[in-house]
User: Fold these one by one.
Assistant:
Number 1:
Amino acid sequence: MPEDSGKKLTMVTCSAPVNIAVIKYWGKRDEELILPINSSLSVTLHQDQLKTTTTVACSRSFQEDRIWLNGKEEDITQPRLQSCLREIRRLARKRRSDGEADVDAAGLSHKVHICSVNNFPTAAGLASSAAGYACLVYTLSRVMGVEGELSVVSRQGSGSACRSMYGGFVQWIMGQQGDGKDSLAQQVEPETHWPELRVLVLVHRADSVVPARMKEMIEAVHKRDFTAFAELTMKDSNQFHATCLDTYPPIFYLNDVSRRVINLVHRYNRHYRETKVAYTFDAGPNAVIYTLQQNVEEFVQVVKHFFPPETNGGQFLKGLPVAPTTLSEELKQAIGMEPMVKGICYIISTKAGPGPRVVEDPSEHLLGSDGLPKESA
Amino acid sequence: MPEDSGNKLTMVTCSAPVNIAVIKYWGKRDEELILPINSSLSVTLHQDQLKTTTTVACSRSFQEDRIWLNGKEEDITQPRLQSCLREIRRLARKRRSDGEVDVDTAGLSHKVHICSVNNFPTAAGLASSAAGYACLVYTLSRVMGVEGELSVVSRQGSGSACRSMYGGFVQWIMGEQGDGKDSLAQQVEPETHWPELRVLVLVVSAERKPVGSTSGMQTSVETSSLLKHRADSVVPARMKEMIEAVHKRDFTAFAELTMKDSNQFHATCLDTYPPIFYLNDVSRRVINLVHRYNRHYRETKVAYTFDAGPNAVIYTLQQNVEEFVQVVKHFFPPEINGGQFLKGLPVAPTTLSEELKQAIGMEPMVKGISYIISTKAGPGPRVMEDPSEHLLGSDGLPKESA
C-alpha cells in the first residue's frame, strides 16, 4: 500500500531480481524500442542473494523527477529512463481514461523521486540493468496503479529487464511487430519447478545464429534435464562470446580467469564423465555456474582450491550456506591446473527465485518523508 | 648438386620458409589426405629471419629411414612423415618409368637419413610444421630428382606446408576432388611484388600451445556452426577480396580482411565444444593496441593476425615500422635482462609523442612480449650450396651441435 505520510507523499518500495540468460540476447533489430534479433531465456536468481531495491516517492510538491542510484544522483533525462517513465505514465493515463476511477491518481501529473540500490556490484556483468529497470518499472506501476503486462515497458529500459519481471525460468519472445507490442517476457516455469537447481556466481576481482536452441532449452527446463540444460548453456555462452570476438573491432568479455574457469568446468565434468556443472558468462568476466544441489559443496571446494582466496580478503563465500568438504587427490589430479591466487574475489551461492515484489516494511524505504535519500540509503 | 663423399652417400641440404596465413585454414573435409573445408592465403616470410634447414642423406648402406628434429631422433613411422616419403618415392618411380633416364636414381630404393632444425621455437604457433614439411619434401625431391608440382605432397605432411612451397603471396586452393589432386598451392604474387610490406612477429611465449591444431580443428568441424557458416559463406568472398588487395597493394583492405579473418578464426575456436583458446590476455592487449593506434591516426596502418597460439604477427608498411616497434616496446616493456628484444631486420629507435601514448592509454604490461622478429615477405624453398651447412656428417649421422 502506498504510504501517505501526511505531506501528500505517496511512497512505495519494491525489490526485483537479477536474471542470468542461458540462451543469450545479443543484437537488436530496433535500437529505440529495444527489439531483439533473437529470443532468449533466463533463470531468475533469488532476491535473498541478489536484488535491486527501489523506492519511488510521488508528491505534488516535487519540482521535477529525480533519481539516485547507489547513493549518487544521476541524470534523469537519460533516454532509457525517460522511455520507462513515459510509458508507465501513458499506461496510467490510459487506465484512468478507461474509467477505472478507483485508481489513485497519484503520480499522473506529479513528479517522482526515485532511489535505487543494488546489493551487488554494478556494471560488472552481474545483470544490474535488468534488475534495475525491472524494479523501476514495477515500483512505478505500484505507485501509479498500473496493472497487467509490464515487461514491454521494462524492455524499453533495458532489454534483459523484461525477463526480470517474472520468477523462475523466463523467456523473452522476440516478437515480429514493428511497434514491439509482441516483444515481451513470459514465464516458462515458476521458481518452484526445479528446486534442486543451484546457482553459483563467481565474482571476479573488482573489472547468430541463436535459437534453434530456444526450443531445446525450453524442453530441458520443462523436463528438468540438467545435462541438456547445461550443455546448451555452455554452448550458448561460448557462441555469444565468439560472436563478440567476430565483431570488428572485436569485443572481449572473457579474460584469463574466465578461461580458467571454463577449463576447470570441462575437466571436472570429464573426470566424472558427466555434465555436473555448467558455466555461463555475460558481458563481463564474472562466471555464473549452474549445478544441482548435490554437487554444490564439492564444486565450491574445487573453486576454492584452484582459485585460492586472498588470506585477508574477507568472506569468500556469501549467500546460501555451503558446508565445507574435502577433495580427493584423484579429483585434484584429474583437474591438474595450477591454482590461481586471487583469481576470484568471492562466490555468491544462490538459486532460482521469484519475480519483483512490494517491500511492506516501511523501514526499508530508501527515501525519507522529505522525498530525499535517507542517510546511508 | 648432390654431394658424393665417396661413400656412395648422396646429400642435399635445403631451407624452406615459414608462412603466415591472412585468410586462415581451419578444418578438414578429409583427415587422411588433408583436404580443407575452405581455401586460404598466406604471406611467405623471409628465410633470413625464419627458416627450417633440412639435410637428407641417401645411401645404400643405410639400414632404415631415420629422422632427427632439432637434435632429437623422432619416430619415422609417424603417418604424416610416411605420407610424404611414400608420395615422393612414388613420383620418383613414376619419373623413372616415364623414361627420364638421366635421373640420378639415388634414393629410389635406398634409405634416407633426415636431419632438420628450425631457427625458431617449435609448436608455439610459429608455423613450424609448415616450414618443416615443406623443407622435407623439397629436399627429398632434390635428392630423388623429382620436379614439378610438389605442394600436393607437402600438403599431406601438414596442410599449411603446401603454402610454404612458394615465395611471396600464396593461396591454397581447396579443391573439389576426392583424391586431392586439385588441392594445391599457387603463387598469387612473388615476394618482390610489394617491397614496402613489413612483418613483425611478436613472440609472446615459447610455451607449447595447449590444443594441437589437428585435433582442435577436428573438434571445431564437429561442433561449431559458426565454422560451417565461415567456410561456406564467408571465406570464398574474402579470398577474392584478399587476392585483389594483394594485386593492388591496397594495404587498408589487406589489413582489415586480415584482422577480421583472424578474429573469426578465434571466434570459431571459442564456438567449439569444448571451446579452444589460443588467445590470452597478452594477445588481447596487442589487439586493443592495434585498434587504438589505428583509431588515433584514423587510418588502418597496422594489422594483427594470430594463428593457433598467442604470438602476434603484425603486418604494416615500412614507413610505420619504427614507430610501431617503439609503441610495442613502450606498452610491453621488455625484461631488463631478457636478452635481445629486437631481432631480424634492423629498426632504428624513435621517440613517441605524448599525444600518441595518451591516445593509446593502456597500462604497460612488463614482460608480456619476449621479443620481436622484424622481417618481410621472402622467397620459396631453396637448395643450400655451401657444404658446411649440411646437418649430417659423411657417416649420415647428425653433426655435433647440429
Number 2:
Amino acid sequence: MEPDTNPPNAMQRLYANCQNVVEEATVAVLSKGSIPRHIGFILDGNRRFAHKAGANSTKFGHYEGFKQLEKVLEICMKLGVEAVTVYAFSIENFKRSKTEIDYLMELFRKAFETFCDKNALVAEYDIGVRFLGNLDYLPKDVAEVARRAMENTKNNKKRIFNICCPYTSRDEMTTAIKETVQLVQDNKINLEDINEDLIRDHLFTSKCPPLDVLVRTSGEIRLSDFLLWQSNNGCQIQFVDCYWPEFSLWKFLPILLEYQIYHNQFSNSS
Amino acid sequence: MATTSVVTEQSESIITQPSIPSLELLSPSLSLNSNISSLLPDRATHSISKKTYSASILDGSCYLALSAIHCIYLACIAIATIYIHVESTITSLWVEQRHSIPDLIKHDKSRLTKIPKHLTIAISHELIHERSLEDWHAIVNDICLASCWAWEFGVKELSVYDKSGVLKSMAIDVYKQQVSTLHQWIKNSTNTEKSVHPTLQFSIISAEDGQPQMGRAVQKIAKYIKENNLGVSDIDINLVNQFVHDDSCSDPDLMLIYDGLPHNYISLDGYPPWHLRLTEITNGYTYHTLNYPFFSKCLYRFSKVEQRFGH
C-alpha cells in the first residue's frame, strides 16, 4: 500500500487543524438532536473513483475506500451511533477478475487484522466487530483473521460494527428461513407459529437495533441484495451522488439532518 | 500499520488544541438515547457538576444552532420542491401543447435503450391521513393513465403498492376502470406491436403481501419439506425464490414512489422485501400527480439516457 509521499507543511497543517475544529463543532451540534441508532452503508464507487482520479489500477480506489471507511466509522462513533453495518463484499463479487479479488482479500486480511489487537477506535468506543455472511466462502487465512477479530472483541457490548463479507440479503434470509424450519423439525415450535417475526429474529442483525438509515454512494439507485429485510420498514434509504472515497462529513450532514427532521413524523404501525 | 496511526494522530491533535476542551464537555454523553446514556452515568454526572455558566451558554447555543440548521435545511427543501414543480408544469405545458402524449411516447421510446419489464408504482404512506376520497379517485385515474403509457412503452407488467390497503379495498372498481381505460387506449393506438402485446398484467399489492407473505411462504416451505421427506439442507435460495413467487408478481425492475413529503430519502413502507433485490427506485415524493414528464423522466433515468425535450 502506498504511504504518504511528502510530510505536510505548516499551511497544510493549519488547514487540517481548522478542518478538524469545524468537524468537531458540527458533530457536537448535531449530537444535540436525535441520532440514528443503526446506519448501513453500501461502499460503492471505489473503482470509478480510481478511474476518475486517473489511477492506473482499481487498487487505489479500494485503498482510499478503506481509509474513508475508518473516518466515517469514527464520525459515527463520535455522534453516538450504536451500530454501523457495511457492505464490504458481495457473494456476487466473486465473479470479478482474479487479480482484483486477490487484492481485495489481501486488503481485507490487513484491515481485519487492525481490528484484532489494540485498535484505538475499537478500544475507545467498546466496539464489537462482527462478520455477517458465510466466512467459509473466503480464503482460509482471511476467514481465520476475521474469526480472531470477532473473538477478540466479543465482550465489547456498547457499539457494534458489522462487516458484511461475503454477503447477500437473499442468502441471509434463506439462512434465517432454514433455522426457522429447523425449529419446526425439532418440534420446538408448531408449523402454524411461523411468521415474519421469526424470520426477523434469525437474521444476522437480530441482536442489533433496527436499521434507521441506509446510505448508498456512487449514485446507483438500487439495494443490490443488501439488508432487504432490515431496510424494509421504518428505514430512510439515501442514495448519494458521490463515490465512497469522497463521502465526507459534509455529504453525511444532509442525511443526518433528514433523519432528525423526519424520523418522528411517522410511526411504523399503519 | 499506517491506518491505525491515522486514528491516534487525530485524537492527539484534539487534546493539544486549547480551544477544544469546551467542545469535549459537550460531547455526546448527555444527549444519547437511553441505551447508551444508561451505560455512561459517571461521565454524565461529572459533566453536569463541571458545567460552568459559559459552558451552559455554549450548550444552549448549540441547540439553537441545530434548530437554525434544521430551518435552513427545510427552506432549501422547500425551494427545491417549488423549483421542481415550476419546471415540471412549464415543461408539461410546453411539450404537451405541441405534441400528443402518444407521439411523445413514440419519440421517447425510440431514444430509450432499455424498458423495464415490470414497473411498480408505490404510493407513499406518509400522506395517508391527509387523503380524501377525491384524492384516492385522482390517484386511481393517474394509475389507469399510467398503465396506458406503460403499455405504449412496452412494459409487460404494472403493479401498484399501497401500504394501507385502501387501494386494494377498491380493487374491483380499480381493475374495471384500468381495463376499460387501457382497452380504449389500445383501440386508438397506432402502435405496430399491438397484436403481439395485447395487454398489460396489472396487480394491486398492500402491506400483507410484504413480510407477512414471506411468513406464509416459509410455512409452505416447512410443509413441503415435511411432505417430501427432505431436510433443511435442501432449502436453498432457488427454492425460497420459487415459493415466494408462487402467488405473487415478479421482481420489479423499476419502482416509482410518489405523493409524499419532500425529502431526499426513500422509504419502502413494507414493499415485499424479497422482490427488491435489483429494483431501481426513483424518488418522486414531491409529485402529487403522476404526470407524463415525471413518468418519462423515470424511464430515462432507468435507461441511463439523457432526456431531451422536443425533437
